[in-house]
Write a structure and sequence with these properties.
Helix content is 61%, strand content 6%. It is built from four helices and two strands, in the order E-E-H-H-H-H. Strand 1 and strand 2 form a beta hairpin.
């Protein structure tokens, strides 16, 4: 069941228990919304380019990224409600990016999201990599 919760036991505070299985709080918000937005945009025959794609895509990605980064430095911080909400926002942003990407590969919004995530995640991972895990 690792795909439902990619957290170690010391991070179970970042999960919900649903039907006896641990589910990542952020992923619980992200994936259903991503699927709904992705399919909804196809059903609505949404255009492949909106002038606000990049700023909105980054704006929807940033809250989850910042909450994740803070959580790496302060593992006991945050709440599952916030993680799920930021996951919903992330899912909306990724749903739009994926909708465009499958029809017009590597759109600007997807590349901008990838740069943002890389620019934040790499330094955070490097800064916290050697931190010992609680037993």
């Amino acid at each position: 069941m690792f795909w439902l919760s990619h957290h170690h036991p010391d991070e179970y505070n970042r999960t919900y228990v649903l039907a006896g299985a641990r589910v990542c709080a952020r992923c619980l918000g992200t994936y259903p919304v991503l699927a709904a937005v992705f399919l909804g945009l196809f059903a609505l025959k949404a255009p492949l380019q909106w002038s606000w794609d990049v700023p909105v895509g980054l704006g929807l990605t940033l809250p989850a990224l910042l909450d994740w980064a803070v959580g790496r430095f302060r593992p006991a911080s945050g709440s599952n409600a916030v993680r799920t909400l930021t996951g919903v926002l992330l899912g909306a942003g990724l749903g739009r990016s994926l909708h465009v990407h499958v029809q017009h590969p590597l759109p600007a919004v997807l590349l901008a999201q990838a740069l943002l995530v890389t620019g934040v995640a790499v330094p955070v991972i490097l800064a916290t990599y050697r931190r010992p895990r609680p037993e």
